[in-house]
């Protein structure tokens, strides 16, 4: 029987089955809550029904509260009201789980008397990723099931666990075969007819002395600046200290505080921004894509190797091309080492390593990419080198193959122009380490075909990247803004700040690392050519001294054996000498000046990028910076952050900076326009 547009109630003998079908992810919207509440009431009233199964159709069990309803007046029954209805059921209720039981979805399953799942299901409380805590009893019930330690880990990390793990910790009562969830759940329910109706809330929750404090301390770095993990910890502490219903009331208060706070707003923006990025102007849904079953990667260095791993991880065979046998050998052994490191962390099995290595075939013959559907080059970042390679690839690759460049700065159209198939050329800009970083800038050339673009967008999903389509310009979105920040960081150091002052402020802002520490990590000599070096920047001076960063024991900082950094007196002297050489009298530079010049230079450049159409929307820029450059997600990305500051305030500050520090801060016309219209970047 159809209960409402998203809920059905059927019966299989003595077992009632409540089925929800609310695509795409069965979020617990008002319609879903109403439907389930009504279906439950009918099943309770039906004397022939002895047990109830709650199941979803489509790709997943309930994936959580409906995030789009947050901040709007609650339509009853609320999720908590629905939970009371289920928890107080007069007959056993079995939640039947497939896909991802997340957030409010898992919290609803936790008020059922039992949970069964298929092996491919995942269960988790990811609210912290949205800057929230589980607000429907998750902080109270999960520790009662899986233990405090595991629950804190699951809730603060937000990563779902596989059904088999869930079964081993008692979160799932039975695994049923894939594809047979409904039958399995009904059979399980039948076995439980007449069994006592136990509630998770009645189980004990206690803490060992010092247990929570130890967890706090062990994770201090991971939780830095974040509001949600601390709220989760406090709520679990409440659970052990006060009666269940009071702890539930406190949990609700904490949830509402987080929901009204700036971090959750930013993190929810990030969630939707990532999904928006896949929607590209001029690329209608359903645009045909091309199958990518074989990939060629040219260059087995750090970048090429990392790129190749992404495809092997997704089960796609790769032809990895190098020019010299020793370089190829080295590249493949680095890949193997990376896999072995993952295996040591328990993320891969020995068999999986061999499976993936078997997908990676090395060769010294470029001709061997002839059968590939996609060839990605990751060779030296120089136009003539890339053009020469593309001429050769154009001759070798099959006619419909896509040719991609991993260039991070160069003009994609100039690369495409040397081929006979510019419409099949695209930029796929990976970020180092390419097997880890989630961002993929997909550079659309002037002639790139929509089918090729659609294929790249889909491919990003296949290899589990966040793909962002960007236009062709120097440095695209990410590196162009980074260059604007670097220019300020360098100018600040020339004028009077020390590299570690800049790093301290940027770290304090929320980045994991400041620009100079980052350069030391990457290597100061990347892109530096000794023969052409003219001591024209502090970086060049340090390189000429043999200070190339962490790998040489020092750069801006000195490093001990364990790579702990201390400000280097040698670098300090180099900075002072360099200012003198420029004829600059060094002055005191405040932290506020450092922050504003570095961050606003980025925002202003981002505005220009948006105005020029290099990025389709402001949130795409945020997605780039969060997934590729370490912008703190809880600040939502540079454009979201600027909107929150208020564009009129940003404009005023840019004008003041322009007066003091010159044209780099001339406000983008877009900012002027938006302020005049009373709008923000989000409306641009
Ligand atoms: N509410 C509303 N919409 C949601 C949603 C949610 N909880 N979860 C996903 N969606 C939407 C997405 O925005 C997307 O919409 P679009 O097609 O218009 O862009 C669509 O569903 C499909 O989502 P994905 O593209 O992400 O699909 P995937 O298959 O890649 O991933 C997923 C599915 C793993 C469920 C993923 O969407 C996800 O992680 N969702 C968020 C889950 C979550 O955070 N749940 C907790 C919510 S907070 C909560 O429950 C509070 C409670 O404690 C009170």
From TrEMBL:
Instruction: Write out the annotated subcellular location.
Output: Peroxisome
Q: Name the reaction it catalyses.
A: a (3S)-3-hydroxyacyl-CoA + NAD(+) = a 3-oxoacyl-CoA + NADH + H(+)
One of the entry's Gene Ontology molecular-function terms is: (3S)-3-hydroxyacyl-CoA dehydrogenase (NAD+) activity
* Residues forming coiled coils: none
Q: What InterPro entries does the record point to?
A: 3-OHacyl-CoA_DH_NAD-bd (IPR006176), 3HC_DH_C (IPR006108), 6-PGluconate_DH-like_C_sf (IPR008927), ClpP/crotonase-like_dom_sf (IPR029045), Enoyl-CoA_hyd/isom_CS (IPR018376), Enoyl-CoA_hydra/iso (IPR001753), NAD(P)-bd_dom_sf (IPR036291)
Q: Which UniProt keywords apply?
A: Fatty acid metabolism, Isomerase, Lipid degradation, Lipid metabolism, Lyase, Multifunctional enzyme, NAD, Oxidoreductase, Peroxisome
* Pathway the protein contributes to: Lipid metabolism; fatty acid beta-oxidation
Q: Name one Pfam family in it.
A: ECH_1
The record's listing under CDD domains reads: crotonase-like
- Domain 3-hydroxyacyl-CoA dehydrogenase NAD binding per the UniProt entry, residue ranges: 294-472
One GO term under biological process is: fatty acid beta-oxidation
- Its transmembrane ranges are none
Residue ranges of domain 3-hydroxyacyl-CoA dehydrogenase C-terminal in the record = 475-559, 596-679
Q: Which Gene3D superfamilies match?
A: 1.10.1040.50, 2-enoyl-CoA Hydratase, Chain A, domain 1 (3.90.226.10), NAD(P)-binding Rossmann-like Domain (3.40.50.720)
Q: Which family does it belong to?
A: In the N-terminal section; belongs to the enoyl-CoA hydratase/isomerase family. Belongs to the enoyl-CoA hydratase/isomerase family.
| Name of the protein described by the UniProt record | Short chain enoyl-CoA hydratase /3-hydroxyacyl-CoA dehydrogenase
Q: Organism, per UniProt?
A: Sphingomonas jatrophae
Starting at the broadest rank, the lineage of the source organism is:
Bacteria, Pseudomonadati, Pseudomonadota, Alphaproteobacteria, Sphingomonadales
């Amino acid at each position: 029987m159809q209960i409402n547009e998203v809920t059905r109630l059927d019966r299989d003998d003595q077992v009632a089955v409540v089925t929800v079908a609310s695509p795409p992810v069965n979020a617990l919207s008002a319609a879903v809550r109403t439907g389930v509440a009504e279906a439950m009431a009918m099943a309770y009233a039906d004397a022939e029904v002895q047990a109830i199964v709650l199941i979803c159709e489509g790709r997943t069990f309930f994936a959580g509260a409906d995030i789009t309803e947050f901040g709007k007046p609650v339509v009853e029954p609320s999720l908590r009201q629905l939970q009371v209805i289920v928890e107080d059921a007069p007959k056993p209720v079995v939640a039947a789980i497939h896909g991802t039981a997340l957030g409010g979805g898992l919290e609803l399953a936790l008020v059922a008397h039992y949970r069964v799942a298929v092996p491919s299901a995942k269960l988790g409380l990811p609210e912290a990723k949205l800057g929230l805590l589980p607000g429907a009893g998750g902080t109270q019930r999960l520790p009662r099931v899986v233990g405090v330690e595991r629950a804190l880990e699951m809730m603060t990390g937000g990563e779902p666990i596989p059904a088999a793990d869930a079964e081993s910790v008692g979160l799932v009562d039975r695994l049923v075969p894939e594809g047979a969830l409904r039958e399995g759940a009904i059979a399980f329910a039948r076995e439980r007819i007449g069994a006592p109706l136990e509630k998770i809330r009645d189980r004990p929750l206690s803490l060992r002395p010092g247990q929570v404090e130890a967890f706090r301390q062990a994770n201090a770095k991971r939780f830095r600046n974040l509001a949600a993990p601390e709220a989760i910890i406090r709520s679990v502490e409440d659970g052990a200290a006060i009666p269940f219903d009071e702890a539930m009331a406190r949990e609700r208060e904490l949830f509402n505080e987080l929901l009204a706070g700036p971090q959750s707003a930013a993190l929810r923006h990030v969630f939707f921004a990532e999904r928006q990025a896949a929607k590209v102007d001029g690329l209608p849904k359903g645009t045909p894509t091309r199958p990518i079953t074989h990939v060629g990667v040219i260059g087995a260095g750090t970048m090429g190797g990392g790129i190749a791993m992404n495809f092997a991880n997704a089960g796609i065979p790769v032809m990895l091309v190098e020019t010299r046998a020793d370089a190829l050998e080295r590249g493949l052994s680095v890949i193997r080492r990376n896999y072995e490191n993952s295996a040591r962390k328990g993320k891969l099995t020995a068999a999986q390593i061999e499976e993936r290595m078997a997908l990676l075939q090395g060769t010294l013959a470029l001709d061997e990419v002839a059968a590939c559907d996609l060839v990605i080059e990751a060779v030296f970042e120089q136009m003539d080198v890339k053009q020469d390679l593309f001429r050769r690839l154009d001759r070798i690759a099959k006619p419909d193959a896509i040719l991609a460049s991993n260039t991070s700065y160069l003009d994609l159209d100039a690369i495409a122009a040397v081929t006979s198939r510019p419409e099949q050329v695209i930029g796929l800009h990976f970020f180092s380490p390419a097997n880890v970083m989630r961002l993929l800038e997909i550079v659309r050339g002037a002639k790139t075909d929509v089918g090729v673009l659609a294929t790249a967008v889909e491919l990003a999903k296949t290899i589990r990247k966040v793909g962002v389509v960007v236009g062709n310009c120097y440095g695209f979105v990410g590196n162009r803004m980074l260059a604007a920040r670097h220019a300020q960081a360098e100018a600040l150091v020339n004028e009077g700040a020390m590299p570690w002052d800049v790093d301290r402020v940027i770290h304090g802002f929320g980045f994991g690392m400041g620009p100079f520490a980052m350069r030391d990590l990457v290597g100061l000599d990347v892109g530096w050519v000794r023969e052409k070096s003219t001591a024209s920047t502090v970086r060049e001076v340090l390189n000429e001294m043999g200070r190339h960063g962490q790998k040489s024991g020092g750069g801006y900082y000195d490093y001990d054996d364990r790579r702990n950094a201390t400000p280097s007196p040698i670098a300090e002297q180099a900075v002072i000498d360099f200012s003198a050489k420029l004829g600059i009298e060094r002055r005191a530079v405040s932290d506020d000046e450092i922050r504003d010049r570095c961050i606003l230079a980025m925002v202003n450049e981002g505005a220009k990028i948006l105005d020029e159409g290099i990025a389709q929307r402001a949130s795409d820029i945020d997605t780039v910076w969060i997934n590729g450059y370490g912008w703190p997600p809880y600040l939502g990305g540079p454009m979201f952050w600027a909107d929150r500051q208020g564009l009129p305030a940003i404009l005023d500050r840019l004008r003041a900076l322009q007066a003091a520090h010159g044209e780099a801060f001339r406000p983008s016309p877009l900012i002027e326009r938006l302020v005049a219209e009373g709008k923000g970047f989000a409306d641009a």
